[in-house]
Write a structure and sequence with these properties.
The protein has about 160 residues and is α+β, with helices and mostly antiparallel strands. Helices cover about 20% and strands about 25% of the residues. The strands form 3 sheets. The chain has a 5-stranded antiparallel sheet with strand order 7-6-5-8-9, with helices on one face. Strands 2-3-10-4 form a 4-stranded antiparallel sheet, sandwiched between helices. Strands 1-11 form a two-stranded antiparallel ribbon. The two termini are about 25 Å apart. The protein binds calcium ion (2 copies). The site of one calcium ion has 6 residues, from loops. This is C-type lectin domain-containing protein.
Length: about 160
């Protein structure tokens, strides 16, 4: 027989379903928000993500790049004129504003590794392309003041259930 003390102990556990916020996409250990209709400069986009308790997305593996590409381009259309020829550009977290050519993920200050650059990039065109954008599932450097959509990322809040004692 379970005594009153034990019954209260069991009742004090509350199961809460933890998931990405509405409008965010769950992939692997993260939640992603794609601002399709909000166009901001890179610094403004970074601030907007932080206001959502997130940061501009750190996207440095092929699977995640592909996942985001299918979310942005659900019809899976291949760019007609070849990769990186569309104007569907989304700010992500990389920058070389501190040291030209030294690309870092701004949120964590660690060097960008991997090579998912659009052909011929980073180009630093005009001498001032210092912010990283997602373009057709690849990376491109662009002018930080350009207003355009962006992708925020936050840690996935849990495996589905959180126990609050
Ligand atoms: Ca640059
Ligand atoms: Ca470029």
């Amino acid at each position: 027989m379970i005594g009153l003390k034990h019954a209260i102990f069991f009742l004090s556990f509350v199961y809460v379903h933890a998931d990405c916020p509405d409008g965010w996409h769950h992939y692997s250990a993260s939640c992603y928000y794609i601002s399709k209709n909000v166009h901001l400069s890179w610094p403004e986009a970074s601030s907007d993500c932080k206001a959502l308790s997130a940061n501009l997305a750190v996207v440095d593996d092929r699977d995640t790049l592909n996942f985001l590409f299918t979310k942005i381009n659900p019809s899976h259309q291949k760019p007609q004129n070849g990769v990186c020829q569309t104007n569907a550009d989304y700010w992500i977290d990389g920058t070389d504003q501190v040291v030209e050519g030294h690309w870092i993920w701004a949120t964590f200050s660690n060097p960008i590794e991997g090579n998912f650059w659009c052909p011929g990039n980073p180009s630093n065109s005009g001498g001032h392309e210092d912010c990283l954008e997602f373009k057709d599932g690849h990376w491109n450097d662009d002018v930080c003041t350009t207003p355009q959509p962006f992708i925020c990322e936050m840690e996935y809040p849990g495996g589905g259930q959180t126990i609050i004692g």
